[in-house]
């Protein structure tokens, strides 16, 4: 193979990287390489081809995770080269190194402009490829005219790439290319070349997503294109494994799904072609199945057609019954789509679904839970949420956990059969994913406990509260609880801990002190705890009992009065002050069960009027509201909006300057005068300058001054904003990483995590008959299906066995639910109302309490005003803080892990395979060794040193290379065996 | 709705090729690659070839010692992406002839070019441009046969041959 073109250094480097057995070794190699490249690149007169190689090495350096910014400028220079391969390499490197807003991009614009005008269409292609990746909103106008011109190029490659570039522009900034949309619809879609047409489809797809109605008229065009594709009308090269242009088909199917959604007339046009695609797709290969899956999505998206739905259902069954997990996964997804239209369809497949749910394959399990989430209704919510929670417990990854937790919460809020169950569920969610749950959920939970069911049934409400208190006292025994749950616990104990008189005030106060003591670093928990103690004390005083603080509580109060946090101090002092008052006063300050009462705040603060008047009469200045102050120009920030509009009017100009005319004597004084004027203008109000017509200035030599203004903006504002956005996103990223790390640590700490589930899984497999009964039961509880015949007692026993994890519910209740489910089965369940299946992203919760967001806010206000310190923002920030430093731990973790794994792998490989065939690249090796030998005499010492490090001699290192290649990648036959996994 | 990145990683977790279609800092890339590769390596052949990671869905396929990973967002047709990977490998195989890890390492930039063309560059579309695929593949085969098939393919092909020829006579 042709590695002859590369220098020995490069081959050495690649070989060394290829042979590196661990991340650490790789790191060392790359660090050395960076040092070397820094020196070499700076040398004068590097030959161009050598420079290209350096740039490829820079790509390596960045790919392996090191900074190569010292060489970016060389990549930029390389794009100027005349040799196409070098040019393209330059463009490639630039696209890999720089993001769209990088400052160096501006240096490439001119080259791109030149290349777009090139006669060689491959140069145009290279430039267009770069345009797609490098152009940002500001630079679009610089290349847009040329790209539009290239739409009419005679070479279809160029046309295609021009379409793609315009598509990209549309994604970046729709307004710049909106005038071209008619052209796309009319001309480009009808291009003779399929590749141009397909690129156009991608662009149209994006357009249709945003605005379906303007494109309805194209439905028949898309249908006829699809028909032609299916009938093999496209040139042969577009076939893929005998499927005619499958990727184009898929795109078309997606477009049709959008166009046909909820539109009977459009759908009527689509049906026949959908049938064709389904019939012609070969179910034996992946690509055929991909087409079939896409058909199912389209069939379920458009206005339903009975025949098509039927064949979609058959295909879905085939997917689900297939052994391949990939197809099962697609099947589960397809099932989720079909049940939106026909909920009964799920029943037929309940056992397959349960198999997938219990599969050790995490992806499949997740997908199945997603399906269950979609088909949750009030009859099966308990089982599903139960499943989700037990899955959530096994998760280590914060992102997934947050996802599942929010779904649990959503389902619980929408379908909870009872408040009791809701509170239990929420407690579990908090317990296992506490820090990942948004604080709002905790506030909602407190609100629910405080307000009860909302009916006038006070008994039920107080029963709910005391059960909540009981469950929290129980939970407090657990060793590690997330902060947010502790806050909820403290609040509930403070409000209702002594309400039903089963627990003494002293007992509750003792518990609260324990909580605070166990979390010395958490000021929020402490704040909640001290407030709760205050409330309990005040209730005691109100009830006419004497309050004596127990010693540990006294110690706690003392500690807080000396706290660094003024908030905690104040609470502690308030408590002490409260103890001195008599019951009348105390009951006014902290009335019992008043958290739900509205506190009215008069924002005009009338009680201060008198004071204001007296101050004014003493000569104080009148207060000016904030918005008026802005208009008066006191603050400097008011310039920004105008500035922005100026930027949009005046973007950078990329057309070359006109040839400067020699300034005549008469003009010169004017020039200086104007430039002075200009400076004054800028410092005063920039808007004036911005509105000067640009072309007037362009004619005069002072044009450069005006450009200066444009440049100033370019380097000023946008750079600033981009850097801030990058840093903030980095922050977010880091925080998620951090929490991943913390979860990982936890799971590593307690190794037992996967064991119980697995063992259960294994044992249930060994006992076949029982399994099926068990599964049928689960199926019954999920779908209300086949299990109708299985008798009730078996069910009860099976269930209690199965639900060992969910021991929170009493067995009696379980049986009861099973019974209710059964009775439902006998009389076939009415299909649930469609809105239950319509899972919009964020629906307002339906069942428990239809809250509106404003009310929630008020609730928060109430809480803060009465007692509890609810400050969501600081909570978030503390979690961030605690996670950030875990990052480092995590990183070292990765390196260790992969390092070990890799060395193991290598040993394995070495042991198991023997080199049986030295392939065609023997010749490289020979060439290489020859090269090495020839150079050996004259090599620098450093190189000898690296060679020596790699092995005892050059020869052995080469052998090793050959072997690793043999072992790792070279197929044994004349035909590549790389594909063997495909055909098996 | 689009491809967000394409990664080639070997069994030791070492990156062999990386193209990102959205900007991530070096540290983010490192972390992402490490996490995803670890997840992929821990999976068996019988499990499905898709994993969900943060907000990406990663579709991967193993060829000998190399993992080809494609990160997508939104709801993509996973099987189609799986076939896209296969198409990519087929193309590379035709271009390099029995492609192996070292081919990609020695010709990193060419591997990038192929990927750029095939992912229809920039990843926001994933239709495979078959004409390009075939242009590449004929380069290694008999030129005259290719010429019969399609003129434009031949143009591209002969150009590539010329380019490769000139690049090989570098030293």
TrEMBL record, chain A:
<comment type="function">
    <text>Subunit of novel type of clathrin- or non-clathrin-associated protein coat involved in targeting proteins from the trans-Golgi network (TGN) to the endosomal-lysosomal system.</text>
</comment>
<dbReference type="InterPro" id="IPR050840">
    <property type="entry name" value="Adaptor_Complx_Large_Subunit"/>
</dbReference>
<dbReference type="InterPro" id="IPR011989">
    <property type="entry name" value="ARM-like"/>
</dbReference>
<feature type="domain" description="Clathrin/coatomer adaptor adaptin-like N-terminal">
    <location>
        <begin position="37"/>
        <end position="579"/>
    </location>
</feature>
<feature type="compositionally biased region" description="Polar residues">
    <location>
        <begin position="799"/>
        <end position="808"/>
    </location>
</feature>
<dbReference type="GO" id="GO:0016192">
    <property type="term" value="P:vesicle-mediated transport"/>
</dbReference>
<dbReference type="InterPro" id="IPR002553">
    <property type="entry name" value="Clathrin/coatomer_adapt-like_N"/>
</dbReference>
<feature type="region of interest" description="Disordered">
    <location>
        <begin position="799"/>
        <end position="834"/>
    </location>
</feature>
<protein>
    <recommendedName>
        <fullName>AP-4 complex subunit epsilon</fullName>
    </recommendedName>
</protein>
<feature type="compositionally biased region" description="Basic and acidic residues">
    <location>
        <begin position="743"/>
        <end position="755"/>
    </location>
</feature>
<dbReference type="InterPro" id="IPR017109">
    <property type="entry name" value="AP4_complex_esu"/>
</dbReference>
<feature type="region of interest" description="Disordered">
    <location>
        <begin position="711"/>
        <end position="773"/>
    </location>
</feature>
<keyword id="KW-0653">Protein transport</keyword>
<dbReference type="GO" id="GO:0006886">
    <property type="term" value="P:intracellular protein transport"/>
</dbReference>
<dbReference type="GO" id="GO:0030124">
    <property type="term" value="C:AP-4 adaptor complex"/>
</dbReference>
<keyword id="KW-0333">Golgi apparatus</keyword>
<dbReference type="Pfam" id="PF01602">
    <property type="entry name" value="Adaptin_N"/>
</dbReference>
<comment type="subunit">
    <text>Adaptor protein complex 4 (AP-4) is a heterotetramer composed of two large adaptins, a medium adaptin and a small adaptin.</text>
</comment>
<feature type="region of interest" description="Disordered">
    <location>
        <begin position="947"/>
        <end position="984"/>
    </location>
</feature>
<dbReference type="InterPro" id="IPR016024">
    <property type="entry name" value="ARM-type_fold"/>
</dbReference>
<keyword id="KW-0813">Transport</keyword>
<comment type="similarity">
    <text>Belongs to the adaptor complexes large subunit family.</text>
</comment>
TrEMBL record, chain B:
<protein>
    <recommendedName>
        <fullName>AP complex mu/sigma subunit domain-containing protein</fullName>
    </recommendedName>
</protein>
<dbReference type="GO" id="GO:0012505">
    <property type="term" value="C:endomembrane system"/>
</dbReference>
<dbReference type="GO" id="GO:0015031">
    <property type="term" value="P:protein transport"/>
</dbReference>
<dbReference type="GO" id="GO:0005737">
    <property type="term" value="C:cytoplasm"/>
</dbReference>
<keyword id="KW-0813">Transport</keyword>
<dbReference type="InterPro" id="IPR011012">
    <property type="entry name" value="Longin-like_dom_sf"/>
</dbReference>
<dbReference type="InterPro" id="IPR016635">
    <property type="entry name" value="AP_complex_ssu"/>
</dbReference>
<keyword id="KW-0472">Membrane</keyword>
<comment type="similarity">
    <text>Belongs to the adaptor complexes small subunit family.</text>
</comment>
<keyword id="KW-0653">Protein transport</keyword>
<dbReference type="InterPro" id="IPR022775">
    <property type="entry name" value="AP_mu_sigma_su"/>
</dbReference>
<dbReference type="Pfam" id="PF01217">
    <property type="entry name" value="Clat_adaptor_s"/>
</dbReference>
<feature type="domain" description="AP complex mu/sigma subunit">
    <location>
        <begin position="2"/>
        <end position="121"/>
    </location>
</feature>
């Amino acid at each position: 193979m042709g590695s002859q073109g590369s220098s020995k250094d490069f081959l050495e480097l690649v070989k060394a990287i290829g042979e590196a057995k661990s991340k650490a070794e790789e790191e060392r190699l790359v660090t050395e390489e960076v040092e070397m490249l820094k020196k070499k690149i700076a040398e004068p007169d590097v030959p161009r081809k050598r420079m290209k190689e350096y740039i490829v090495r820079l790509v390596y350096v960045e790919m392996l995770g090191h900074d190569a910014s010292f060489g970016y400028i060389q990549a930029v220079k390389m794009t100027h080269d005349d040799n196409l391969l070098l040019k393209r390499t330059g463009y490639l490197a630039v696209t890999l190194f720089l993001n769209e807003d990088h400052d160096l991009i501006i240096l490439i614009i001119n080259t791109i402009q030149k290349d777009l005008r090139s006669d060689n269409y491959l140069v145009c292609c290279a430039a267009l490829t770069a345009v797609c990746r490098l152009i940002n909103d500001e630079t679009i106008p610089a290349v847009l005219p040329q790209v539009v011109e290239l739409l009419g190029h005679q070479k279809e490659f160029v046309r295609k790439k021009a379409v793609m570039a315009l598509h990209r522009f549309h994604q970046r900034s729709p307004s710049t290319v909106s005038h071209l949309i008619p052209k796309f619809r009319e001309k480009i879609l009808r291009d003779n070349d399929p590749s141009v047409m397909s690129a156009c489809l991608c662009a149209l797809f994006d357009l249709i997503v945003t605005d379906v109605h303007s494109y309805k008229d194209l439905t028949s065009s898309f249908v006829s294109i699809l028909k032609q594709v299916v009938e093999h009308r496209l040139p042969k090269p577009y076939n893929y494994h005998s499927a005619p242009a499958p990727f184009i088909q898929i795109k078309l199917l997606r477009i049709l799904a959008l166009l046909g959604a909820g539109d009977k007339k459009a759908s009527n046009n689509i049906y026949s072609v959908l049938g064709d695609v389904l019939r012609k797709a070969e179910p034996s290969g992946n690509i055929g199945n991909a087409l079939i899956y896409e058909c199912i999505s389209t069939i379920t998206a458009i206005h339903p057609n009975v025949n098509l739905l039927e064949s979609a259902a058959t295909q879905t069954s085939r997917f689900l019954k297939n052994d391949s997990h990939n197809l099962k996964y697609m099947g589960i997804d397809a099932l989720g789509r079909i049940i939106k239209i026909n909920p009964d369809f799920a029943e037929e497949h309940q056992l397959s679904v349960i198999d997938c749910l219990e599969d050790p394959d995490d992806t499949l399990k997740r997908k199945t839970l997603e399906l269950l989430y979609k088909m949750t209704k009030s009859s099966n919510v308990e089982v599903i949420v139960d499943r989700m929670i037990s899955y959530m417990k096994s998760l280590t990854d914060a992102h997934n956990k947050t996802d599942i937790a929010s779904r649990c919460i959503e389902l619980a809020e929408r379908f909870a059969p009872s408040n009791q169950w809701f509170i239990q569920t929420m407690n579990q969610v908090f317990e296992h994913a506490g820090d990942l749950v948004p604080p709002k959920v905790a506030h909602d939970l407190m609100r629910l406990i405080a307000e009860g069911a909302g009916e006038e049934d006070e008994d039920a409400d107080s029963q709910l509260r005391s059960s909540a208190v009981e469950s929290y006292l129980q939970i407090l025994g657990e060793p590690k609880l997330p902060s947010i749950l502790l806050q909820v616990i403290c609040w509930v104990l403070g409000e209702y801990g002594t309400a039903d008189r089963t627990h003494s005030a002293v007992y509750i106060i003792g518990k609260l002190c324990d909580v605070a003591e166990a979390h010395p670093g958490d000021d929020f928990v402490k704040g909640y705890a001290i407030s709760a103690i205050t409330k309990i004390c005040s209730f005691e005083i109100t009830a006419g009992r004497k309050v004596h603080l127990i010693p540990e509580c006294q110690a706690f109060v003392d500690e807080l009065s000396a706290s660094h946090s003024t908030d905690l101090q104040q609470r502690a002092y308030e408590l002490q002050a409260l103890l001195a008052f008599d019951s009348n006063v105390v009951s006014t300050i902290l009335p019992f069960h008043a958290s739900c009462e509205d506190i009215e705040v008069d924002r005009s603060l009338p009680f201060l009027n008198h004071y204001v008047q007296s101050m004014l009469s003493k000569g104080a200045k009148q207060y000016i509201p904030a918005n008026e102050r802005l208009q008066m120009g006191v603050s400097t920030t008011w310039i920004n909006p105008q500035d922005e509009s100026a930027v949009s009017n005046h973007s950078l100009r990329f057309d070359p300057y006109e040839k400067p005319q020699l300034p005549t004597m008469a003009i010169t004084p004017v020039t200086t005068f104007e430039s002075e004027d200009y400076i004054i203008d800028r410092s005063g109000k920039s808007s004036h300058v911005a509105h000067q017509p640009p072309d007037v200035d362009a004619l005069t030599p002072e044009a450069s001054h005006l450009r200066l203004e444009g440049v100033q903006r370019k380097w000023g504002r946008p750079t600033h904003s981009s850097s801030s956005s990058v840093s903030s996103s980095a922050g977010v990223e880091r925080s998620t990483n951090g929490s991943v790390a913390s979860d990982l640590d936890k799971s590593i700490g307690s190794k037992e995590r996967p064991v119980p589930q697995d063992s259960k899984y294994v044992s249930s497999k060994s006992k076949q008959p029982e399994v099926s009964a068990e599964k049928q039961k689960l199926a019954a509880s999920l779908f209300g299906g086949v299990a109708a015949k299985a008798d009730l007692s078996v069910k009860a026993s099976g269930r209690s066995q199965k639900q060992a994890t969910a021991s929170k519910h009493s067995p009696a209740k379980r049986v009861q639910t099973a019974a209710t489910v059964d009775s439902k089965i006998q009389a076939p369940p009415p299909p649930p109302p469609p809105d239950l299946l319509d899972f919009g992203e964020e629906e307002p919760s339906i069942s428990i309490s239809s809250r509106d967001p404003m009310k929630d806010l008020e609730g928060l206000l109430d809480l803060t005003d009465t007692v509890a310190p609810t400050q969501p923002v600081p909570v978030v920030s503390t979690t961030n803080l605690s996670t950030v430093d875990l990052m480092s731990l995590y990183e070292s973790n990765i390196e260790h892990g992969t390092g070990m794994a890799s060395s193991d792998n290598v040993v394995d490989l070495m042991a198991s395979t023997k080199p049986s065939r030295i392939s065609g690249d023997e010749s490289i090796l020979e060439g290489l060794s020859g090269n090495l030998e020839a150079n050996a005499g004259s090599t620098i010492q450093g190189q000898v040193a690296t060679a020596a490090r790699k092995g005892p001699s050059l020869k052995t290192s080469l052998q090793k290379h050959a072997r690793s290649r043999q072992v790792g990648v070279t197929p044994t036959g004349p035909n590549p065996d790389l594909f063997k996994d495909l055909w098996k | 709705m689009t491809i967000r990145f394409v990664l080639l990683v070997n069994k030791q977790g070492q990156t062999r090729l990386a193209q990102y279609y959205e900007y991530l800092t070096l540290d983010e890339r490192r972390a992402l690659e490490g996490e995803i590769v670890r997840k992929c390596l821990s999976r068996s052949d019988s499990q499905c070839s898709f994993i969900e990671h943060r907000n990406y869905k990663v579709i991967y396929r193993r060829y000998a010692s190399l993992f080809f990973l494609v990160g997508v967002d939104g709801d993509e047709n996973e099987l189609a992406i799986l076939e896209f990977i296969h198409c990519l490998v087929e193309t590379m195989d035709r271009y390099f002839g029995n492609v192996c890890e070292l081919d990609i390492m020695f010709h990193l930039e060419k591997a990038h070019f192929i990927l750029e063309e095939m992912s229809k560059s920039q990843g926001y579309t994933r239709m495979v441009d078959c004409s390009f695929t075939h242009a590449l593949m004929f380069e290694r085969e008999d030129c005259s046969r290719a010429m019969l098939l399609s003129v434009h393919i031949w143009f591209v092909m002969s150009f590539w041959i010329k380019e490769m020829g000139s690049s090989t006579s570098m030293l």
